[in-house]
Amino acid sequence: MPLSVAGDAFPGYAEYLLPDLEITMDAATVKVLLQTHLPDCEFHVQGEGANYDITAIGAAFEGLRPVKKQQLVYGALSTEIAEGSIHAVNIHTFTPDEWQARG
User: Any residues with CB less than 8 A from the CB of 28 and at least 6 apart, and which?
Assistant: First the structure.
């Protein structure tokens, strides 16, 4: 998506001045996106390019079915997934007690 500097006042102007800018996605960027949307969770993110493994730990997952847990994490990345910056994610969610029990 092109960056707009002139709004709708000069259609096409921003596209002429600025080529399509793409944010390089990396694990640190994905982690920041997740923390912004789910600030009370801890995240471990591995991967590069458009493919990531995400481990999310937080009380926000207490009492939720697995699908709902996944939806919370996907929701934090929905824009990037829709734009294609993120293509594949492998998500593992844990409550704090579940994470601690793993040893």
Answer: 45
- Condensed to tens digits (0 to 9), the pLDDT of residues 12-40 reads 444 444 455 555 789 999 999 999 999 99
Residue at token pair 């390019």: 49
Q: Pairing relation of β-strands 42-48 and 88-94?
A: unpaired
Q: How many CA atoms lie within 13 A of 61 on its CB side?
A: 23
- Number of structural domains the chain divides into: 1
pTM: 0.76
Residue with tokens 């910056």: 85
Q: What is the domain-level CATH number for residue 36?
A: 3.30.300.90
